[in-house]
Every structure is written in structure tokens, then in C-alpha cells.
Amino acid sequence: MAAGAAGKGMPIRVHPLFLFLVALAVAAGLVWEVIVVFCVVVIHELAHIAVARAFGYRIRELTLLPFGGVAIIEGEPGAWSPGREVWIAAAGPLANGILTGVALVLYSAQIWSEGFAAFFVRVNLTMMLFNLLPALPLDGGRIWRAVSSRTFGYGRAGELAVNSAFWCSGALATLGAGTAIWGAPHVGMWALAGFLAISARQIRREIPYEAARWLYGLKKAPKSEPRAVRPLAVHRHMRAGEIARYFAPEAFHLIAVLDDEGKIIFIIEEQEFLEFLFAPGGFGKAIGEWPGEPPNLSS
User: Is 76 among the catalytic positions?
Assistant: First the structure.
């Protein structure tokens, strides 16, 4: 799931890779298998949407992928909550787990045949396990970013989740190569690896803009709720954009600017820093280039 701008409708889009795999499956005569996979993907995404709406979000757009989907939700970026993100992201894999249990019950009751139940369980377990990989844009990557954002900062946590996606893609490609060497090539492994690598490459370009949007929302968000203080010690030559990568959600930041000897020159409060950051050219300026007399200048 991803945060997006406001919108009234909820257009549903289908990823080209999904259409390509559907065409291959239909050409191979796997029509009912395609129908099952499509239904499972839709239920997976509806679970995300249901939890997001329970938190008061509205859905802007839904894109169906071969192994899940991306639902862009409307919300205030500055008020982004790691806890809510975990619940929303976990809803899809949880739905797959529930569907697996339902299939086993229906098979035990002799309502579903062994072959159909086995296929249905395999589809759901594959989707659940793949989506739980700690890699953006997968659900596991969003959970990893949400959990680690309090420690590493929102921007840095996103970068780590994208880097993890490339490692996971490489691992899947290696497994695919291993199946080919063993004489039982698994094309799905390569498809998953390719999808993950392409998606991660695109998201890596978007991460700085998404982080900047979150920071701007933080700048505009009301400050009425109590927050834990998060101190950051940075060298005076460090650029403001680099410092901002370590800003964490649900925290109040105090930035201690140090000289070459590691001594504090001055301390900047969160709002002062954000004003500096979003001033013209602020992201590329060193924090030591603070305009005028630095605040809280030590004697």
C-alpha cells in the first residue's frame, strides 16, 4: 500500500505483466487456474482496502499485479503512522492465510476435490510468502519500512527496504537458475525476480520524492500530540537533505550541529530545520550555512 493524493473515484488498473501471464496461461489451456488466481489477488487487495478504510482512508487507485497489487490511499503524509501501515500491509497476507484455512476445511468436508483444494492452497501460500519478503513494493517491505522507520528514519528505512528488494530478487533468480540446473526449471522464480527488480528500480527513483512529501506534510501537520524527542548530532558540512533522511515518524527532532572537533555549535529545533530545508535550495545546503545568527548558539 502506498500513500497518494486525494481522488474521488477508485480506478482499477491491471499491470501489463499480469495481462502477459494471463495470456500465457490461457494459451496453455489453464483458464480456470487463471480465474482462481485472479480471485485470490482481488481478495488480497480488498483486505488491504478494508483495513485502510477502517482507519478512515479513502482509496485513490488500485493496480492489480500477478502476485498482489498496489492500492494508493488518500491520507495526510505528515500524519503517516507506522502502526497503521503495518496493519494495512499485513491484511493482504493475512487474508491469504485465512483462505488457506478455508480451503482445508472445505476439503475436509469433502466439498472441494483434493486437486482443486491443493491448487488453491498453493496459490495462497505462494502469494502470502512472496508478499512477506522484506522488500518494497511488497507488503513485507512496507512492514519492514514501518517498523524500522522509528530507528533509521522514514527516508533511510525506505532506502533499506528497496535495497532488500534487489537482494531478494537476486536470491529468487539464483533459485530459478538452480531449478534449471536440477532439470526442473521454474519459470515463475525468474518472473518473480524480474518483477521485483524492475519494481524496486522504479521505487528507488521515487523514494526521495516520497520522503520529501512526507517531510512537507510533517512541516504542515499540527503539533498538538505529545512526541518522543529524537536527538540527531550532525557535522556542520552535512547537507540538510541528508539529515532529513533520518527524520522518524511520531518524533520531535532536535539537531545538534557539530564543528570539526565534535563540539556543539548550535542546536536547531524540528520546525526551524524544516523551514530551512524547504527554503529555495535548502535540500542541497550544508546545515552550517544557517542564515543569520544560528539559534541557541552556545557560548
Answer: no
